[in-house]
Amino acid sequence: MPSFSSIALRETVMKKPGVLNLTDDALDIVRGVAKRHQVMTAMRDSVGLGVKVSGISLADLGFEDEEAKADFVITGIKPPRPLDNPAAASNWAITLMSADGSAGMAKISLSQLTTICQENPTVRFSDEPMTMGALRKEFNDDRKGYTTERERIVLMGNLFAAAEAAKNASEEYEGIGKANPVVFTDEGGVKHRGMLMGAWFEVNDLEKLKSVDFTVSKQDVALAYIDYVVAEAAKEDRTPEIFSTNAWYTVQGRRSNGKSDQLGSGVKLFRDTDTRQWKIQVSVMKKDNREYLKDGVLANMLDGDFEKPGNPIDRNMMEATIKSNADLPEVVSRLLQHHRINFHGKAADSQWYRDHLRERGLALEERERELEASISKEKPTAPALPDPADEVTQEDSEMRQALNNAAMEGQAASPSPIKFPGFG
Fold first, then answer.
1. Fewest CB within 10 A of the end CB: N or C in the chain?
2. How many domains does the chain contain in total?
């Protein structure tokens, strides 16, 4: 291949790709790199701290005013993290500040800024960064007080769950943005805590927050989820499988780094497509599988010892077949109660999970009402206690009669003693 400078190579790829003698797939990759190089080169010469950007549409920055335009100053440039690709414009963060305060602040990626410039040719960058004197004048001397009204969505309630849901949704869908913790005051002056969603987040996006991973810790819910996974897998002709939470995150972490699957200290349950028997997989590492291999109760439910599977993809795992599919509930119970694991639910199944929990709650309430009615019906009636005033023995009658006789006789001051029956 002939030698080119970066700019010459870019021009060759874009205008004379046949010179490179590349396959179509390789040419597509090189063409994508050339386009990114062109964009990054153009933006490199324009973007900088203190550079004034004029004529940006507020609608492009997520503000409600679709007609107005404003001038901004670039006040922050955040480079990619060490592991991120520096050639990807989406990994660079740009902070824009309205100097006169009319539009406030906006945070966008370099990729978004590039798109705005491509779609709006009237956007202009100043040739040189503004001097300290010019910045002081625009941001202080000429700045006027203002009020900006915007509608933003705030997640309240369990803030940890809200932050996790927003994080997962932002990884699954584009445009969700990041949720930031805030304290805000309502119309009555009461302060609240919440998670503030991005300017592009809309009410319709709330459904996306519901589609997040979940955790199953109850045996009956786990078995119901397994039945659901089996039914869904049959529709798509794939192997039904379910991971413990620790195994799932270990697998995901390794896949994101291009490494082969490994379960860590967790387990994986799956049904063999040929034998249709359920199997359990654990890590091949002794530090991770020790507790499972020495569990005698679990071993009695398995048809043989844990062995390495023949599939090279699972070379980091050991597996064993459960004796009978009828033993699966006992295996699940043993894993949940003795080994203290939970099962991971995928975001795609979150709607089923919500519906199942709702039905489960209603069933439990109905069962509770039935038990209360049964207990109330079977409760014996306590016998009535006798009135002590009605219990008069023969001795009491004789005593009262003796007292009455003595009073009627009207004896003198030293009467003879009265002999009570039974006392001498």
1. C
2. 3
